[in-house]
Amino acid sequence: MKIRSKMKSTSALLGVAGLTMAAMVFAADPGASSEQKGVESASVEAQVAGARAATSDNMEAKPKASTGACNPCGGCNPCAAACNPCAASACNPCGGCSPCAGNAEPGEPSGEELRAAYNGLKASMQASYGTSGENGASEYQEWQIFNTQPYRSATHGGRLVNNYANATAAAYGQFEEAGILPVGSILAKDSLKISAGGKATPGPLFLMEKMDAGFDPENGDWKYSLIMPNGTTWGVTGGKNSKGIKFCSDCHIAAEDFDYLFFMPGEYRKE
Ligand code: HEC
């Protein structure tokens, strides 16, 4: 089995600028202070590291490095410079890992609660995304879903997300063994937020569609799209706001050995 550590070393050098930009776009709340954005950007890096570690065979060397920003063995090792508690990083106790923030382990709704919240919302989410007219947006919920419950994705705005793949992309379910997905593959990641009071609201839809060879060879010919909860298309590779959406491929390129796919943390995978 291929392991994450085989990833090109360029991934380790992935530009922080790109990640920060992504975090700013995803922060999306116009009122968010620059400090909050900083917090999110730091947790983005931790999540990428966590996502890789979660799928690595190298689990002995990093026994618990799998669960993201708040894992003391993960990106937020308190001994690491980045995790100085006084810094505006993901480990700032007032930041993303604050037990009061409702987005860390303590106080996180159970898998059951998250599934229930999502089930109550998903039909209206698809109806709304569908008005964008983007491929897959009006039907992705008929496809296979590959996660067992909504899980928090720091790299997609800290939202709770799900991963679907159309029939052409069925091999996605083999995760790191999937190989290069065929032209016509579409992967859909929808998202939601749950407030401290338990109210669920839809987030954006993230799409990747495998296009014909030559569409964007440097990025595996994937077309990325971001659709807002109201069905407005925010950006599409090679289309509307193509420059704006480039941060998707700038991060996914770190997984170029896996056809630009990261898959989900091991604990949420449907086997
Ligand atoms: C900072 C890194 C980063 C950025 C930016 C990013 N992604 Fe991802 N993406 C990931 C990671 C890590 C995963 C898998 C884990 C997860 O779901 O959090 C993933 C998973 C996905 C998946 C499921 C397919 C897969 O790779 O397993 C889709 C679809 C997706 N992203 C679309 C997008 C789109 C569209 C954008 C831009 C709007 C985007 N992503 C921006 C890191 C990123």
Which keywords apply here?
8-stranded antiparallel β-sheet, disordered N terminus, binds heme C, alpha+beta, 8 strands, 271 residues
What does this protein structure show overall?
The chain has about 270 residues and is α+β, with helices and mostly antiparallel strands. It has one domain. It is about 20% helix and about 15% strand. The chain has 4 helices and 8 strands; from the N terminus they run H-H-H-E-E-E-E-E-E-E-E-H. Strands 1, 2, 3, 4, 5, 6, 7 and 8 form an 8-stranded antiparallel sheet that branches. A hairpin with a 5-residue loop joins strand 4 and strand 5. Helix 1 packs across helix 4. About 45% of the residues are buried. The structure holds heme C (HEC).
Bound molecules: heme C
Structural class: alpha+beta
The value of Rg in angstroms is 18 Å
What is the β-strand count? 8
Q: Largest sheet, if any?
A: 8 strands, antiparallel
Instruction: State the helical fraction.
Output: 10-25%
Distance N terminus to C terminus?
16 Å
Number of self-contained structural domains: 1
Order of helices and strands: HHHEEEEEEEEH
Helices, by number, come to 4
Q: For the residues shown, what is the average pLDDT?
A: 74
Shape: globular
